[in-house]
Write a structure and sequence with these properties.
alpha/beta, 96 residues, single chain, 52% helix
């Protein structure tokens, strides 16, 4: 049975910015770990990218290829949250 690893918004943002450790985990086609995230985390990560031209779209495609994206509303039993400037700043700080 595969171990599940939940990718939070800050981890996704780090990966999209080129973090080597996460890049290895995501691109290595790991058969022992199942990567899972929510549409909320993906939304927050994408919405927190400062320089969108600096993001390699291939990284996003690979992330979507190997990660199960679950509906936040089903997992958390509540509506998705609007991305605020405060949350964007928090994520950017954590992803440094």
């Amino acid at each position: 049975m595969k171990q599940k690893m939940y990718l939070r918004a800050e981890a996704i943002l780090k990966y999209l910015k080129g973090d080597d450790k996460l890049n290895t985990l995501i691109t290595a086609q790991n058969t022992e770990v199942e990567l899972v995230t929510t549409d909320q985390s993906l939304y927050e990560a994408l919405g927190s990218i400062e320089k969108r031209n600096d993001i390699d779209i291939n990284l996003l495609v690979k992330l979507l290829e190997v990660t199960t994206v679950m509906p936040y509303s089903e997992m958390m039993k509540q509506e998705r949250k609007i991305l605020t400037e405060e949350r964007v700043n928090e994520l950017r700080e954590k992803a440094k």
